[in-house]
């Protein structure tokens, strides 16, 4: 069935990004990577890498200069934002999912989702690999994220995060965390979903770190379910370290590197929800969520 866009102007944007779903020449299933092959993948040289830049950079510029303003118009204009799309969401939510999904495709990710995100108020908790995690989650379900305050200063992404109702947190600041928890509670009680990365930081894609239990307190007090979400990159997650930030790699350097990477899978697994009232305390809630994510990553 042909997909119909709510706005005719979107057809030009869609046409510009559809070709990125095709694998890059010479690529196929991505095998498990040794240290030497991982180093080669990170190398910025190579004919294929520059070939990908030749078509992905123009697509990214079109996506930012044409498709982003259209998306933001639908988000900030109340008459447009309230239009129902027939997909159980409003036009602004549909547009955000559409824009984020196409951003993933421009970077060569072939999205695949498993399970169904909960409707209404819920706390979504996911493992944290890279900045692209937020785009992957937003392509499936629009939610307000808790993110480190440094993101607010990142080019474009910081502005988008602020417009997307991100809750910024100053890491290591107890007073800031208290304010974050209050804002999370208010949003959950008003029926809005919230997304968090309970590890608190990325870890090079090599492990799922301990989950901070305190961030689950808002779900306990609001009485809303927690849905663990597993994010995997590559076949069976073998490209986690490729997608993650390299040692001393800046945000801009990571963007440039990923634009030249081969096409690969990006999987989002919405796992069985956990009723906060069924778990004894936020510590067990955090541990149970982490265990389910690890099990999904290893499956």
Automatic annotation (TrEMBL):
Residues 122-234 form the Phospholipid/glycerol acyltransferase domain. GO terms for molecular function: 1-acylglycerol-3-phosphate O-acyltransferase activity. It comes from the Bacteria. GO terms for biological process: phosphatidic acid biosynthetic process. It holds the Pfam family Acyltransferase. InterPro entries: Plipid/glycerol_acylTrfase (IPR002123). Keywords: Acyltransferase, Lipid biosynthesis, Lipid metabolism, Membrane, Transferase, Transmembrane, Transmembrane helix. Pathway: Lipid metabolism. The chain crosses the membrane at residues 58-77. This is Lysophospholipid acyltransferase family protein.
